């Protein structure tokens, strides 16, 4: 009886599968997430030869498709770029659209592409006008997110090629590069 008890105890200790006592993760695989963050931006406009800087925020909702290999969802962003130190020019973007990402290494590195559409407000130098003018804007861009911890991601690089469509006479085409942090909620 003693040997049998020792064998059963050792078996229960080293082979929990035999007892159907293996721990199963209570966490379901994630199929969607919401991300909220902020960034610092550098911009170059073809209105003069000025580099400028500003801040902004973004939010996106992503849903995993094709076995969670590709993530698709809406993204919205707002940005204020200020040229005031040099000429009094500034612009603001309010854009929304689609973001597509393809994560690598268990969401450690996540490159993405985005297609955004919305509006921009442009303020000319004070010696020309003191009004803001609104323009329809589209943007194509992409970048890379890097996981820092379970819920904190670093948007290492984000690039957008924007087009102010109804800017007279042929449009305005600034590019904007950004970097920032975000928090993801699963």
Draw up the topology in text:
Blueprint: H1 2-14, E1 32-44, E2 51-65, E3 70-82, E4 90-101, E5 109-123, E6 132-147, E7 152-164, E8 175-185
Antiparallel strand pairs: 1-2, 1-8, 2-3, 3-4, 4-5, 5-6, 6-7, 7-8
Class of secondary structure makeup: mainly beta
Number of helices: 1
Q: How many domains, in number, for the residues?
A: 1
SSE order, as H and E? HEEEEEEEE
C-alpha termini separation:
52 Å
Number of strands: 8
Helical content stands at under 10%
> Could you name the ranges where pLDDT drops below 50 across 5 or more consecutive residues?
none
Backbone CA Rg: 25 Å
CATH hierarchy, class: Mainly Beta
Strand order in the sheet with the most strands: 1-2-3-4-5-6-7-8
CATH architecture: Beta Barrel
- What percentage of amino acids are in beta strands? over 45%
Q: Sheet with the most strands?
A: 8 strands, antiparallel, barrel
The coarse silhouette is: elongated
Output the CATH topology.
Porin
* Global mean pLDDT: 83
Descriptive account of the structure:
The chain is mainly β. It has one domain: Beta Barrel (Porin), CATH 2.40.160.20. The chain is built from 1 helix and 8 strands; from the N terminus they run αββββββββ. An 8-stranded antiparallel barrel has the order 1-2-3-4-5-6-7-8. The longest helix has 13 residues.
Summarize, please.
The chain has one helix and eight strands. By secondary structure, it is mostly beta strands. The chain starts with a helix and ends with a strand.
């Amino acid at each position: 009886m003693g040997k049998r008890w020792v064998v059963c105890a050792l078996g229960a200790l080293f082979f929990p599968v035999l007892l159907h006592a293996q721990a199963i993760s209570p966490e379901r695989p994630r199929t969607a997430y919401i991300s909220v963050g902020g960034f610092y931006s550098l911009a170059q406009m073809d209105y003069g030869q000025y580099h400028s800087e500003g801040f902004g925020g973004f939010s996106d909702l992503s849903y995993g498709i094709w076995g969670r290999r590709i993530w698709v969802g809406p993204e919205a962003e707002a940005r204020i770029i200020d040229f005031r130190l040099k000429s009094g020019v500034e612009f603001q973007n309010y854009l929304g659209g689609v973001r597509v990402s393809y994560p690598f290494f268990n969401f450690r590195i996540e490159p993405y592409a985005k297609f955004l559409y919305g509006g921009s407000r442009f303020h000319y130098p004070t010696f020309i006008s003191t009004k803001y003018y609104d323009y329809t804007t589209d943007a194509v861009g992409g970048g890379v997110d890097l996981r820092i911890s379970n819920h904190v991601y670093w948007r290492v690089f984000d690039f957008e090629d924007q087009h102010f469509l109804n800017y007279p006479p042929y449009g305005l085409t600034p590019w904007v590069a950004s970097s920032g942090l975000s928090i993801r909620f699963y």
